Amino acid sequence: MTVPRCVRCKGSKNLCGENCRYLSNIGLIQDREIGNEVHGMSPPAVFVGRHNYPKVNLGPMVPIEDKEVYPDTELMYGESLEDLIAMRSSLVRSGFSSNVSVGSWSSRLIDLTQEIAMSTSPVDTEVEFRKPPRFEVKLDAYTQPSGPYGEIRKAMITENPSIPRDVDYIVGDRDAKTTTALEELYKRGISVSQSIRLLSSGLLGQEKERKLVPTRWSITATDSNLSELLLDRIKYYQQINQVYAGYSEYLGNRCAIIFIPANWQFELVECYMKGSLWSGGQATYISEMEDYNGRTKYADKTAGAYYATKLAVAEKLEQMNRQAKIIAVREIGDEYFIPLGVWVVRETMRDATKNLQKFDTLQQALNWTKNKFMFSGRWMDKSQLLEKHRKQRRLTDYIE
């Protein structure tokens, strides 16, 4: 399956060697005066860049105006595109440079950034920049939009952050591996968003192994690790005994999930409709999957959306105490013209699992799902799992 270059790149891999024409043409650069100093209630949001890794830029995100900014993406779901952009563009990505390895950390700014990352509520923060930031909105297919970038001269927090006891305990456990820490956070009800912040800020893992993790990488790593931890249990559960399907849509992302009685298998089919972000002048279908034993390579076509969807599905199966074969479908319409991050996929897929419909046959579920999409049932011809399922022989086939 040939995947167009823009769909593979999503503005992040520089496959064309030029500035991304999608991200540069959206027109979110605005004229606004920002001084050398910013003081406000910083949400517990930090950003760790990936350029020049292992030397990266990181720092807290500080508001330039009095606007409520939700601390977690779980709380953002359902907000309008305009409100999301306004909310996120009001944050300055204050930054300083550091090596990712724990042995290289010596700056008080590291401690400040980590304290903010551990908080569950906004923290009163003062930042002085080396020069006034130029206002512009940074867009990315994986992370949330953010406002201008400013290099920190000095910063301080003027109140004690509100840090949950469970977070403080797990961050303080310097013998636990990263996967163990993520599992414990999840079990104790800590949001996926906060777990991503903690991992990105170098607060999880064994003491000498701790590292700063670029935000983009920490998102996928958290989704992947948590889904695998859930699947370690799910694969011991009985299969579901009938077909289910669920659907939800948000900001031009139309998402459906079909649960089929079988051992665990998983596929994400994505359709970029003509005129949608990255698609160019043609509709594009991509599909990636895994069998019972999982994947050995990164899902580089569907990328972060694959692991975000997989977590949403694994959460539902764990809730059901069952395992199943899963076909997830995401259709991206032209309404989704600004990338907001893979959290949109995770939360829309989660919503699709909340009110599952029961069906007597797979064909009934497919017919129900087909009517939800602009391109109707054309995705079915692209589904690898559906093709294999239809060709697979069953024990009942041999019973006369």
From TrEMBL:
Molecular-function GO terms, alphabetical: zinc ion binding
Family affiliation: Belongs to the Nre family.
Gene Ontology biological-process entries: DNA repair
Entry-linked InterPro entries: Nre, Nre_C, Nre_N
Key words of the record: DNA damage, DNA repair, Metal-binding, Zinc, Zinc-finger
Record's function text: Involved in DNA damage repair.
The protein, known as: DNA repair protein
Domain text: Contains a predicted C4 metal binding domain at the N-terminus, which could be a zinc finger DNA binding domain.
Domain Archaeal Nre N-terminal per the UniProt entry, residue ranges: 30-279
The Archaeal Nre C-terminal domain, residue ranges: 290-398
Annotated Pfam families: Nre_C (PF04895), Nre_N (PF04894)
Taxonomic superkingdom: Archaea
Positions of C4-type zinc fingers: 6-20
